[in-house]
Specification:
About 70% of the residues lie in helices and about 0% in strands. By secondary structure, the protein is mostly helical. The protein has one domain: Tetracycline Repressor, domain 2 (Orthogonal Bundle), CATH 1.10.357.10.
């Protein structure tokens, strides 16, 4: 996942090494630079903060998930496909669980990570063949964001090699989310139809009573 032939890859690897050894809150940029074998000036040329490093880590994980994602099979339900994609992400993260636990426990996430985090959800949905455009897409993004955050916490403490607790939690949350999104889509469709009916009634009221039409012409030459 991390190309350590590049400065950025070495920085990410150094950050994970530091985070696995002690609390992320106590890790400094100088610590990370030294672990990466770089000067602080070299590190500054690539990233600007620990938050920036976490954002770059999210992007690196996204890329590896997409590379490892199993091919879509004909007839596979989108929910099942999404389940496979999220579990692939946990497989990618597996070797770095101790570091990620340290980062997660260091305190509330920086708001600047909201964009990269939602981007991760976007790419997992896309990898599952699920659209993310429009109002419904926004609901799916938000729903997966909440689902993933909840299951991630389970995964952090799931020491079973088979990740039974993680898989059970993910399946349960995805099924619940699917029902919720379906209900919201039906509600949105009903509200749209109701709005169309109101607009049509308003147009009719503005135009006044219908004018009587002239009787059809009996001129056989009329075209």
């Amino acid at each position: 996942m991390l190309d350590q032939t590049t400065p950025k890859g070495r920085i990410l690897a150094g950050a994970l090494t530091c985070a696995s050894a002690r609390s992320w809150a106590d890790v400094t940029l100088l610590d990370i630079a030294e672990a990466a074998g770089l000067s602080l000036a070299d590190l500054r040329a690539e990233v600007s903060s620990k938050t920036d490093i976490v954002a770059e880590l999210l992007r690196a994980v996204d890329g590896e998930v997409l590379r490892r994602a199993p091919k879509r099979t004909e007839g596979q339900e989108p929910r099942d496909r999404l389940f496979d994609i999220v579990m692939t992400r946990f497989d990618v993260l597996g070797p770095h669980r101790a570091a990620l636990r340290s980062i997660y426990r260091s305190g509330p996430a920086d708001f600047a990570l909201a964009g990269p985090y939602l981007s991760s959800q976007h790419w997992m949905l896309q990898a599952a063949g699920i659209g993310t455009e429009g109002p419904t897409g926004a609901l799916r993004l938000a729903g997966l964001g909440l689902t993933y955050a909840s299951v991630f916490r389970v995964w952090l403490e799931d020491d079973d090699p088979g990740l039974a607790r993680t898989m059970a939690a993910l399946d349960r949350r995805l099924r619940r989310g699917e029902r919720a999104i379906g209900g919201l889509e039906q509600l949105g469709s009903a509200m749209w139809r109701f709005g169309e009916a109101l607009r049509e009634a308003a147009r009719t009221a503005r135009s006044g009573p219908a004018r009587p039409q002239a009787p059809p012409s009996t001129d056989i030459g009329a075209v």
